[in-house]
Each structure stands twice: as C-alpha cells, then as structure tokens.
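Troubleshooting entry. Yesterday's outputs looked truncated, so today I'm pasting the complete records for two proteins to confirm everything comes through intact. If either block looks cut off, that's the bug. Protein one:
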Amino acid sequence: MQPRNMSMSGVVDLGAVKAAQEAKTKAEQARAEAVRQGGGGAISPADLVIDVDEAGFESDILQRSAEVPVVIDFWAEWCEPCKQLSPVLERLAVEYDGRFLLAKIDVDANQMLMQQFGIQGIPAVFAVVAGQALPLFQGAAGETQIRQTLDQLVQVAEERFGLTGLTVDPDAVPGGGGAASDAEVPVGPYDALLEAAVQALDAGDLGGAIQAYKNVLADDPGNPEAQLGLAQAELLRRVEGLDPQRVRADAAGKPQDIEAQITAADLDLVGGHVEDAFGRLIETVGRTAGDDREAVRVRLLELFEVVGAEDPRVIAARRALARALF
C-alpha cells in the first residue's frame, strides 16, 4: 500500500481527528492480544530496527504507527552521508528503548515510496505517527539536532496521541513477538468513556462524542486525550453542513465581520490550511477591540488546542498573537 492517503504535513484532517483516541486503544488491544497468545507484548532490542519495502509498508509502518512513532530512514548503498547517519539512528533507536521504531527503506529498491513521500535527495528522515506522516530532516545532521528532533517527536506522540512506545525486553527472542509474561494490560479509569467517544465519532454522532469527552473532563479536567478529543469534535460539529464557497465569500467580502472570519478559520483548519486559519484570526485580532477581540482570541486558542501546543506552527502563531495584542 502506498501512502497516497496520508497527510504529509501533519495537518488536521478527518482521519487525524480520531487518531489520538484510536491509537491508544489499538496499542492496548495489541498488547492484550500478545498476552492472550502467551507473550508479554515485549520485543527484543534487535526488533527496534527493521527493513521495510513497498509490500510491507502498511503492516510495518502504517499499522505499527498506531502503537509507536515510526521513524523512516530513506537511504541507499551509494550514499556516503547515509552511511554516517544510519548507524546513529540505529544506535538511538536502541537507546530510546522502544519510544520509537526505526524503519529503513532502500530508495533504489523502493522508488515508488520515495516518490510518494516527495523525496528529492537522501538521506531523508520522516516519521509516521498514528497514520500521519511528517518530515523530520533531510541531509546530514548532528547527533544533538537528531536527539532534539526525536525528543520532540516522542513527546508529541505521547501527549497528542497517547503513544507510549513499545516494551523492550533484552531476553525476548528477536522476531519472536515478545517474551512470556503473565502480566495483564492495565486499564485506565476513563478508557471506557474514551472508547465510547471514539465509537460515537465512528457513527457520526458528534454530540455523543462531545458529551463523552465532557464526562471524562468533569472528573479529570487535565486529561489530555479528552481535552484534544473535545476540541477536535467541537471543531467538526461547527463546520458540519457548511458551504465552503459561501463561507469563504462571506469572509472575503466582510473583513470586519468577526463571525465570518471565525467560521472561515474553522473551515481552513479542517481543510488542513493551518497557517491560513491562524493568520486570519491573528489579523482579525489586530483590527478589533473589546468583546470582539476577545471572542477571536478565544477561538484562536481553541484552534491551538486542536493542533497541539508543541507544533511549530502553534509556537509561531502564539508569538504573532502576542505582537498583535501588545
């Protein structure tokens, strides 16, 4: 399977909206199945680095990315910088102890994957998290830069998608699927409610999903999965049934109408135009005052929550918002 349906820029889309909740559920189900089959769900350190081809892309990368961030190293035998970078990535994959999985793709043998990812030169390193692909860096990179990038990746994967990585056991048999264990998979106190929210989203019941997330937050106001899920579900409900052409025409023709700008920003974000959504509202903040300005600011903060606080686009937009306000 080729990654033609994947979001190559990490933007918000209908598939990504549910990924945060589904990813954790799928990971727990996979670990539970490993326990039932006599394994503890742990893997050998040798299994943290895998070779992947086009035939195995779906099972080795897309499916695994619902459980752990998958870092992809595009390389070739003739590429000298690759020979310097690849060993560093392999060593760090073991050092990070299951917080990410390293997939190596030989571009000479997998030209289609190289084209699908839009790679112009190697070495090139991407990540896939909960089915969403994003570029990490291209060309030679120092170990300090690589570590900083990986640290940010695993943090975002855990905070936004609930991916805590793989369990690594030095005694596990390489390729054996894990070591024997009688341990049971822990169940969180809100897993049933979060699963109910996912099921509501699957059924198109946005109101039911919103209520399920609110039920979690009533007892645990800081629950990151519920906060993200609620923000995304409310965004989807706001744009449900809108006519995109009319919304954009209203926003273009009524620059002083804050509701028109807010609605257009919602639509921009769902369509993946993250910078456009942020820029539209920041400009509106700059030309409004009082209650109107506050309404726009609050919506902008809600959209920040949807994208994620660690996203570079959010960080840049926060700085721009501060300049517009002060």
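Protein two, checking that the full record survives here as well:
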Amino acid sequence: MTFSPAPGVRGVKICGLTEEAGFDACVTHGADWVGFVFFERSPRYVTPAQARALSARHVGGPARVGLFVYPDDDTLARALDIVPLDVLQIYASFERATEVHARFGVPVWLSQPVSTGADLPTTRRAGVERLLIEPKPPTTATRPGGNAQQLDWSLMQGWAPPFPWMLAGGLNPDNVVEAVIVTGAPAVDVSSGVESAPGIKSPRAIADFIHKARSVTFSA
C-alpha cells in the first residue's frame, strides 16, 4: 500500500520520535509520516517495544516508518512482530531494498546519500517506493544519516527524479521554505531540526516546520 499526501500537498515526515509530546504534536499538526529509528548509535534510537507504545497513543494519523541501517531479515522480522510499520526505510543497496520488499511485502524507502549530481539516481528500480535524498556523512561520522548536515540543494536542479522522493538533511523551520523553492521537493524529512535537545522534539518547532513546508505550492 502506498502512503502519499494528496496531489499538490507537500509531504512531511518527522523522524526520530522518542517521546510522547513529540509524537502527539505530529498527530495534532498533521504530519504525513512519523519515523522511529531502530539504530542503536543514534541519539534517537528506540526499541520496537518503545515505538509500539508511542504508536498506540493514536489510532490512524501519520503513517509509521521504521528506519534501519543495513538490516538483516531477522532484525526486520523481529521489529515487525512487535510494532506495526507502514514503511521500511533502509540504508542499503537497491538490490537489498528489492529483496526486503519481496520478503516482507511492506513499502520500502531507500535512503540515498549524495555528494555530487552524479550520485542522483536516474533510472527506476523495482521494489523501491521512494528515495530519501540526503548528504553523504563525513568520514568521521558514526551513523549514515541524522548528522544535521545540509545538502547542496543546487544539485537537484535539472535532475529528473525516477522515483517519488523526499529531501532530508539539515532542514529546520528557518530554511525549509528556501529548500523546497530551490529543489522542488515534493516531500521533506526533518529530525534534529525540530528538537529542543538530542532526541527530544519541540512541539512548537514541529508545528512551525509543517506549516512552512506546506506554505509553498508545487505541481504534483
């Protein structure tokens, strides 16, 4: 099943939910997706049981996205047994993403770190529903994403996306309007940019980000 906003409405994903106030703000202000990070090195790490408890606070609302870093099948199966997830977002190869979709039958999003225009995919691959375009991490990073780096948005100019896609990396309420104007991104993903402390979301910043992200219209 595909989870997408209505045509012409910019999608918003709030990632790295760890606590009740942040989750509730996503529901109240109409986020399209909420993300749970199942990667222990992240300050936003939650267990599947913790994600289940947060998700159970509201029936319906944002689609639930589980973020995994190079996961094996057992890791994915254990998580799905505990918490219902609408989307699996993974750091892996296109080939692995296809395997995951075939194995679990859940929509798969592939995180695609880029540093130059040559890194942007130009052909469609089976099994991947959406790409998340974000900056490649520094060589000293301990995780592949969520490092609050801002991508060079000009890389997207002239790119013909072969997939539905989402812009991530260094976004916040102060720069999201410029980001979507420059890139034309149909959806945006934010984590640390709406936090009051690592892993702790600010309900006010969530509301501000969602409002500003949707304030610029685009053609779907």
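Both blocks look complete. Sanity check on protein two: Helices lie at 20-28, 48-55, 73-82, 94-104, 176-183, 203-213.
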